[in-house]
Amino acid sequence: MTPESAKAALRDQTIELPSWAFGNSGTRFKVFGQPGVPRDPYEKLADAAQVHRYTGIAPRVSLHIPWDLVDDFSDLSRHAADLGVTIGMINSNVFQDDDYMLGSLCHPDAAVRRKAVDHHKQCVDVMRATGSAHLKVWLADGLNYPGQDSIRARQDRLAESLAEIYAALDEDQRMVLEYKFFEPAFYSTDVPDWGTSLLHCMALGDRADVVLDTGHHAPGTNIEFIVAQLLRQGRLGAFDFNSRFYADDDLMVGAADPFQLFRIMHEIVQAGALAPDSGVNFMLDQCHNIEPKIPGQIRSVMNVQEATAKALLVDADALAAAQRAGDVLGAHGVLMDAYNTDTRPLLAELREEQGLDPDPMSAYAASGYAEKIAAERIGGAQAGWGA
Ligand code: PSV
Ligand code: MN
Ligand code: MN
């Protein structure tokens, strides 16, 4: 693709931000408080709007319920609109209540499953109040010990619970189901992989898709293969982008393995799935434990944008010709040429054309916003997620 066509595609790209990235977070060893962190969901949205202001491509914010519980969600979404952003996916949370020690939608006790299903129905009400089109489900359900519960019965309970939640959605609402191979369960997880998620989505119907969190795979997993396969099936609903070195590290996307991010975006571009109407939602799911949070989000958005630009610059005709000819090194070379292109000047140019500062990181730093919130906000809230 030419740089001009790449810029046209980049102009349409959007990335969704997680509200929880703006709160204090850490590991199970320590949560370090940072000055100026938001005290409530209103302030989280204000910080997210800063990321959009300097990058121009982050117009939506995912909420996590109950971390982002407010009295009046219509008021919260008006607040978002005033800030120039909208509410994105609504994430349910059935992993922090004592009742969920042995699971939620898969729990052996029907009363706990009822509570978990009802929580999802409340999330659907939040979607109605905020205009959000997607319910995002991740479950901590699983087993620590062989024999602890029936693996198969848990799948049956899961299917039944999900079907009730799916039935509660309006016609114009969708569900996405995220998988994760381990943690907090260490022996067997109830939605451990894309295949399990896909099977449940297919059983539910056309409005259920898979969420791929880049941190939720065993080391060495070929994630771009999963991307290609889900796109073939029309079932890739969303990404949770982040980086991992070891487990579910939730570090900034593109920090650990920018080449992997490029390979993922190459599959996306090849399948035409970058377009805003492709049905794929590109989201971040990250925590900024030791780095400042708003710049951490800006950096992450830029990392996705740079990888996307490189993927768009792949010479698709030359690649196809080399592949047809069985020219292994030629085809690989076409891909590497694009990956090794410095796309930062192209993106700086694009931002200038859009009336943005070519350097979002320094523009934010110069804005004085960080100093302002540090002075104004005392007693910032924890993100909700400590690990
Ligand atoms: C679980 O590890 C997960 O990736 C899910 O998306 C949760 O909702 C999120 O992390 C919380 O940070
Ligand atoms: Mn996630
Ligand atoms: Mn995760």
Automatic annotation (TrEMBL):
GO terms for molecular function: L-rhamnose isomerase activity; metal ion binding. It comes from the Bacteria. The keyword Manganese applies. SUPFAM superfamilies: Xylose isomerase-like. Residues 71-267 form the Xylose isomerase-like TIM barrel domain. Pfam families: AP_endonuc_2. Keywords: Carbohydrate metabolism, Isomerase, Manganese, Metal-binding. InterPro entries: L-rhamnose_isomerase, Rhamnose_iso-rel, Xyl_isomerase-like_sf, Xyl_isomerase-like_TIM-brl. Signal peptide: none annotated. This is L-rhamnose isomerase/sugar isomerase.
